[in-house]
Amino acid sequence: MNFNRILLVTAVFAAGTAIAGGASDVLFNFDGVVGVQPFRSQAGAPVLNTVAGVPPGGAPWGMTKFEATIKTNGDVKARGRGVVLWGADGLGTRAGPRQVVVSLFCRGPFTPPAVSGALLQNAFSSAPVDLNPDGDFEVRGKLTDSTGATPPLDCGNNVDNRPVLLVRSVTPANPNTGTPAIPGAWFAAGIIAPGQF
Length: 197
Fold this sequence. Notes:
By secondary structure, the chain is mostly beta strands. It is built from one helix and 13 strands. It has one domain. Helices cover about 10% and strands about 40% of the residues. The model is unreliable at about 5-20 (pLDDT under 50).
């Protein structure tokens, strides 16, 4: 009987350790989304709502649901629902885009009393995935930059120095010319999950 209790306690402890160990390899969790508005105000004049050098979609876009987990090794799992136009004649549809990528942009280090650093323009992007007629997609893979590197561990934090995760359109690869897929304008941005650390 005592031996069985020891085995039970050992098993519970091992399971707890595995769960804790699994959580420690998460770099960021995102839960929620904001859609793009093509323009913002700068010194009282409208300018394109460009983020980290990425231009916005040409009309308001929204998304009904978004979740993503990014691991310390660059692995990403993301799911988006309802990427559709919120304006123009294509209102309520995915319009022209047939594929999307997610791109992570880190924040640089900051010097107190500042609480955030500059948003860096080096993108860590997923491979393109299909966007279905309802504007839904799923990403499973790795985030890498143009050199094949994965996001650094000091990519930002979940307080004020937050990284930015954009959902972007894709110009598809051209098998005839060998031109690779090219990430384009952004439609929506993920929101860091509350209380993830």
